[in-house]
Specification:
alpha/beta; 6-stranded parallel beta sheet
């Protein structure tokens, strides 16, 4: 590998978004043996580029949407550009396909995304590089309860099962409507279940949050919402406490939180046919049908996704609840034999270096 050529890794360095999380992990791995310089995406139009670097642009489409003319001139003087992005649906637009022609290659996080790019007409090479988890996510014992004490109190007092879902943005793409239908049916048939929803401000559902200063636990039995950013130890704690992660997404290029939940031993349920099939076993996939357009009006992601069948999801959740200990044993065995082998950041970092070797 050409270790002397610099790599400029451009990503949102100062925003709490998924691009930031994944970009930080990529850079951490690339620094093990390569010359890597990080550049915030908002600074990219102002940076004068010398030394003939290989540029990794993550995300790829967003900067080109804003500054195509300026970037096309700027990148004419570099060794080349590798785009890192996703396919949130089964197709990207002709406009997006045209933008990929500025790149030497594209890197996507799942076989679902690669298939969407190729089907849409992308001609440059498309490489699959999944997301991962740090080794300590696999090895750390259950986290001592600090942030989510009330959830533990709910489980202990009412012997409740906790269903967890992340709904950070794009409610239709993430399947918020499906989640509500599934939860209401499970609650009607099983009774003793509470939905724990991790969200950002602005996603409508339950309006209340956990009251850390006290209050009657009964008022949280219809559902609990946590807003804002969680650090990795808080996320571990949340995954360790909850019994099942319900991934109702219709689309998405990978979906990182359910992988992390799986690593922590939580049972994760997803729709058959989505990007998460790369890391979920067949026995945790729910039958699905084709969805509508997952991001209506989006200039990049113009296709459809998959939609888990509500009644099938309810049946599967009830089946798992009735044999939860056995399912958790199966999850742990699957993580040890498959997930840990393929989804550590160290392994993914090596795969990224092998991809870049083709272009350095």
């Amino acid at each position: 590998m050409n270790r002397s050529r610099p790599i400029f890794y451009v990503y949102p360095m100062f925003k709490h978004v998924s691009w930031n999380v994944i970009g930080e992990k990529h850079c951490e791995q690339l620094k093990k043996g390569l010359r890597v310089y990080m550049i915030d995406e908002e600074a990219l139009p102002l940076v004068e580029i010398y030394s003939n670097p290989l540029v990794l642009l993550h995300p790829y489409f967003y900067p080109f949407q804003k500054w195509e003319s300026k970037l096309s001139r700027k990148f004419a003087s570099v060794h080349g550009v590798i785009g890192i992005d996703v396919a949130d649906s089964d197709r990207i637009s002709p406009y997006a396909v045209r933008l990929t022609n500025y790149a030497l290659a594209m890197i996507v996080p799942s076989s679902f995304s690669k298939k969407a790019y190729i089907k849409s007409g992308v001609k440059v090479p498309v490489h699959v590089l999944p997301h991962g988890a740090d080794t300590h996510w696999f090895e750390t014992q259950p986290i001592k309860t600090e942030t989510f004490r009330k959830l533990v109190q709910i489980k202990e007092k009412f012997h409740s099962k906790l269903l967890l879902a992340y709904m950070l943005h794009s409610p239709y793409r993430k399947g918020l409507d499906l989640l509500i239908k599934i939860y209401n049916k499970v609650k009607e048939e099983y009774g003793n279940v509470v939905l724990v929803l991790k969200t950002n401000n602005g996603v409508g559902f339950y309006s209340k949050q956990i009251d850390y200063k006290g209050g009657d636990l009964e008022k949280y039995m219809s559902g609990v919402v946590f807003r804002g950013w969680l650090n990795e130890w808080q996320q571990m704690e949340l995954f360790d406490i909850c019994d099942m992660y319900v991934l109702t997404s219709r689309g998405g290029g990978f979906e990182h939180p359910p992988l992390l939940a799986l690593v922590r031993g939580e049972v994760v349920l997803g729709a058959k046919g989505g990007a998460w099939e790369d890391f979920l076993p067949e026995w945790l996939l729910v039958p699905s049908k084709k969805s509508g357009q997952v991001l209506a009006g989006n200039p990049i992601h113009t296709g459809v996704g998959v939609e888990m069948l509500v009644d099938k999801a309810v049946d599967k959740i009830l089946e798992i609840f009735n044999d939860l200990d056995d399912y958790k044993v199966r999850v742990r065995e699957y993580v040890n034999t498959h997930v840990r082998k393929n989804f550590t950041w160290e392994k993914i970092g090596q795969e990224l270096k092998e991809i870049l070797q083709k272009y350095l």
